[in-house]
Amino acid sequence: MSTVSLLKCYRPFFSMLFPHSAPPRPHASIFRRKNFPSFCATSSPPPLTAEKGCGKFDSEGLALPEVWLHNTMSKTKELFKPKVDSKVGMYVCGVTAYDLSHIGHARVYVNFDLLYRYFKHLGFQVCYVRNFTDVDDKIIARAKELGEDPISLSRRYCEEFCQDMVTLNCLSPSVEPKVSEHMPQIIDMIEKILNNGYAYIVDGDVYFNVEKFPEYGKLSSRDLEDNRAGERVAVDSRKKNPADFALWKSAKPGEPFWESRWGPGRPGWHIECSAMSAAYLGYSFDIHGGGIDLVFPHHENEIAQSCAACKKSDISVWMHNGFVTIDSVKMSKSLGNFFTIRQVIDIYHPLALRYFLMSAHYRSPINYSNIQLESASDRVFYIYETLHECESFLNQHDQTIRKDSIPPDTLDIIDKFHDVFLTSMSDDLHTPVVLAGMSDPLKSINDLLHTRKGKKQQFRIESLSALEKSVRDVLTVLGLMPASYFEVLQQLKEKALKRANLTEDDVLQKIEERAAARIQKEYAKSDAIRKDLAVVGITLMDSPNGTTWRPAIPLPLQELL
After folding, report:
1. Which of 510, 374, 503, 358 is nearest to 424 (CA)?
2. For residues 133 and 95, is the Cβ–Cβ distance under 8 A?
3. How, if at all, do strands 324-326 and 366-367 pair?
4. Both ends of the chain: CA-CA distance in Å?
5. pLDDT value, residue 237
6. 22-36, 230-244, 346-360, 460-474: segment of lowest average pLDDT
7. Whole-Å CA distances, 25 to 52, 59, 85, 310, 464
8. Average pLDDT of span 128-132
9. Residue 330 pLDDT
10. pLDDT tens for residues 6-35?
């Protein structure tokens, strides 16, 4: 059956995208004492096999947490109930590929990557669709500016975007459809809208008639009189209502076009997502997401189009993340106050940027600043350094001497962290609470490794192993788990040196000069060297084995915290 036929009969590609076999339940005995699924970094989470009341249960009868998500449509948090048991269909509006993506884009896709990962952790089979807009006015304008073919330009920036997502440790979606590859579906949907009386043709252009759709404005809570023409469309006197928006634009000289029964042209901005989401998920699916700037006009228009094409169109949850701001002003390309992902990760580690984007609740605005990025970088260094030291210690001990016994106080720390993780993530992805909850297990690891009391604790090795695993597993679900603790620490140090405009040899030379000054009892000089390095974000640490260094928040910024 062709894709167009699938669209006509409203059947999604679920059977193609969801595997038929259920993943096995991971083994993790330390969490058996709680009625929640265990963390698992390498295995798939348990399948959902039974439903009792409103709760979900895994194959062993252990309760899974209920997930509550904020719905922009209802303006409230709602209990998430998938349309198909144990499966989630999610569509997220992707980038318009005409330039490198900025960190406002990064926030959108890190947020929905988190949701994707968390649903998978809970055992849901997820079909995650994220599109590319590769046919658009902005792409055509940029291509003319560069003297490049529009499709070729957009293809290049699609590839750049994918590389950015890999760098930010975002999982690949199930499907990444492009507008240029789905013209039959788009044209077919426009035909349905016309046939159902919701659109009209003017000189080869096709417009949606908003007055024919009484519910227009229900997502954004706007009255029809308050609506304006779409952001990407100039006001056109040929329209019956200024709020009417283009489904199809007639061909102009030098622009790419496709044939249709109403003439050659290309789709308007909004119709693409309605058509592609229907093609892969059907007209009725679970979650549609994007940045808050898409609520109007883009998502409002999507609702109108989809309902006009199919009366059974129904999206359970509309999710939107807040802006990234600079000095409380939205970051955007149109305003020119933006930093690309590449610019940021040139001097800060990608996992520090990901941590920063999770440090505020996804629906709240988050203000980009050097202080915030330095703080995130400092925090992830502490996390990975603690885990690296723990891993190194455990590797030095014979695995066979470990007993399957963990002290009650260690179990309490792990269980509390486990509960915080599941409760907070299930409460509309409350990541700041999860990140804060990591403090207790990390502190416990450091105490066991470095304090006199900790070194004497019974079952110390077993406790360290269990604590390290609990943190590691949460980092995996959050997308913050590096391939190697050692490697990420080296990379974080390299970024810190770059921000400080120093080389490691420069720092080592300063350490030697300071050591010589201390020998000569030139303590003022010694203190000055330490302070000079601290000003640029390099902290010296003295120990019986000598002096080492680590990245830190630069002293002037610390004073602003």
Report:
1. 358
2. yes
3. parallel
4. 60
5. 82
6. 22-36
7. 19, 8, 18, 39, 24
8. 98
9. 77
10. 333 333 444 334 443 333 333 333 333 333
At residue 88, the 3 state secondary structure works out as: strand
| Tokens describing residue 391 | 């891993």
How many Å apart are CA 116 and CA 110, to the nearest integer? 10
Burial zone of 506 (CB within 10 Å; 0-12 exposed, 13-18 middle, 19+ buried): middle
Going by pLDDT thresholds of 50, 70 and 90, the confidence category of residue 503 is very high
Dump pLDDT digits (tens) for 217-268.
Answer: 999 999 876 655 444 445 678 899 999 999 999 999 999 999 999 999 999 9
- Quick check: helix, strand or coil at residue 66? coil
Q: Which residue has the higher pLDDT, 26 or 171?
A: 171
pLDDT at 418 > cutoff 60:
yes
Q: How confident is the model at residue 56 (pLDDT cuts 50, 70, 90)?
A: low
CB-based burial of residue 543 (10 Å sphere; 0-12 exposed, 13-18 middle, 19+ buried)?
Answer: exposed
Q: Give the separation between CA 523 and CA 529, rounded to whole angstroms.
A: 10
Distances (CA, A) of 373 to 342, 392, 533: 14, 28, 19
**Pairing relationship of beta strands 87-92 and 284-291 according to DSSP bridges:** parallel
Q: Per-residue confidence at 400, pLDDT binned at 50, 70, 90?
A: low
Closest residue by Cα to residue 450 from 541, 526, 530, 364: 541
Give dist(CA 46, CA 40) in Å, integer.
10
Query: Three-state secondary structure along 229-249?
Result: CCCCCCCCCCCCCCCCEEEEE
Give how far the C-alpha of residue 95 lies from the chain's centroid of Cα atoms, to the nearest Å: 14
CA-closest candidate to residue 509, choices 532, 484, 489, 490: 532
327 CB-side CA count, 13 A: 3
Spatial distance between the Cα atoms of 320 and 324, rounded to a whole number of angstroms: 13
C-alpha span between 512 and 519 (Å, rounded): 11
pTM: 0.89
Tell which phi-psi region holds residue 323, choosing left (phi > 0), alpha (psi between -120 and 50) or beta.
beta
Lookup result for tokens 């409230």:
76
Per the CB < 8 A criterion, the answer to whether 65 and 119 are in contact is no
Q: What is the rounded CA–CA span in Å between residue 514 and residue 518? A: 6
Say what the pLDDT of residue 59 is: 46
Alpha helices in 11-134 (DSSP H): 14-17, 103-121
The CA distance from 475 to 479, in Å, is 6
In angstroms, the CA 462 to CA 204 distance is 72
Q: How many residues does the chain have?
A: 561
User: For residue 561, how far is the Cα from the chain centroid?
Assistant: 27
Dihedral, 359, 363, 369, 372 alpha carbons, nearest 10:
-10
pLDDT of residue 560: 87
